[in-house]
Amino acid sequence: MRDHLARSTRRTAPRAVAAGTGGLLLAALLPVTAAQATSSGGCEHRNNNSYDKLLQCVTVEGVREHQEALQKIADNSTDPVHPGTRAAGTDGYAASVDYVAGLLRDAGYEVSLDPVQVEFSFPPVLTQLTPTAADYETGVFSGSGSARVEGTVVPVDINLEGDRASTSGCETEDFTGLNLSGPADIALIQRGTCTFGLKARNAQDAGAEAVVVFNQGNPSTDPADDREGLFIGDATSLDLEGTQPSDLTVPVVGASFADGVQLAAEGSTAVVEVRIEQRTDHSVIAELPGKNRDNVVMAGAHLDSVIEGPGINDDGSGSAALLETALMMANTKPENTLRFAWWAGEELGLIGSTDYVAGLSKAEADRIALYMNYDMVGSPNYIFMVYDADQSTFEAPVAIPKGSAAIENVYERYYTLTGEPYDDTAFDGRSDYQAFILAGIPSGGLFTGAEEVKTDQQAAIWGGTAGEQFDPCYHLACDTAENVDLHALEVNSDLIAFAMLTFAYSTEPVNGIEGTEVPGKAVDLPAPAGPQGTFPATDGGAAGVRPSA
After folding, report:
1. Which residue segment(s) compose the domain that 505 sits in?
2. For a Cys-Cys bond, which of 231, 329, 369, 440 suits 507, CB 3.0-4.6 Å?
3. Selection from 357, 287, 309, 371 nearest residue 116 by Cα
């Protein structure tokens, strides 16, 4: 795949510098001319060990080349189940790994491919045979087993009238008197009250060979709490705390309330099919040894897309910006060791990053000074957000490792330097930094928004369109190479490079280990201007939360 996706010749011309309020004020950082860069061997062959040289060489054009290459990979995917994507388990993902790893090897990095097992799901089936013949839209619940079941539909304590409140399947007594003794019984369970894992496990224990969980059907005024349409949830645990696994072996799929009503008809028979295969994917890990091998500065982005589309913002934006930074830093001689990661299986539940951290010995984990996460950094209806490690806006639901606020401080001071307004996003561990913070490793990151809707106040600050999602193509087929805001992508690509170079030479504010100053002209970062505070306290921080998948 790499041959026909080869990169074009690197440009060395500096980016345009905008002046005025909200513009990029980087003229002081860009004293090296294009001619000088060319005469010294070009950006890819030069030691870009100063802010001016690195920020000149990390360009939005270079980042876009990588995004366009990832788009081409998705377009050329021949996967018979999920064509047109770079989802985990597909040839599109494998080609993405080849592309990233190949460029990094060519640049001189120590590259390793970290294997991880992922569950590859074929499109699920929910078909009613009698008394109505119909195919229903469905989806697989997390924790589902894998099987094809054709048999009788058995409703379990459902409520199709009035407020339609239901405890269907929550108690073992709900199954008393039901005939689930056959070889192919399908339990029909209504949403409500307890965890989906408990409902499905109770059905499995009662003898059901498959489970359909249909929506409750109680209309809600909250558009985020749809109780009518198709609903797909998490059936991995028996309790709300997630401490008791459900250990399901039967297939569990979802249905809308209307389809559930049809399936509940007397004499109903149906087919439920969930086919899941275990496949091996790889996270790409690239390392550049520094003088201090025991102080590792790490940054990562996830390389996989969802099955619905090519994922060029989610997270082709973070992946591309991080790749361009790594390539432009390949010839530096940093004080600290640099490690870059492109994670597998984030969209399936942070699989690659979780497996990686779990495989570290205590000594190996202790070597990692910090981790920076870049998941969606060029959303087309963006706002600039920083993980809120100091909890100035959002109270974190997780323990924040000491030193994380120092990472946030660098991001905020850079935005302030360049005249870019910024806000906080909840430090909740709902992306690939989760495993790192659980291991006590200081972490931070950037985010430009997903399915949250931009407010009038946010549009007045950052531009864009109020009333539309930060990323209108989030987890959709339209998340293509056109699904980007170039200004957001350029600003954040520069910031990713700036932060990596800063910590390449000193992590003292994070972990107390003394380093050295970044070579070249120093950059005097101002005090942070402070978050814009556009998320009202009454929304519980929901608008600033990074979704996990």
Report:
1. 25-119+279-534
2. 369
3. 357
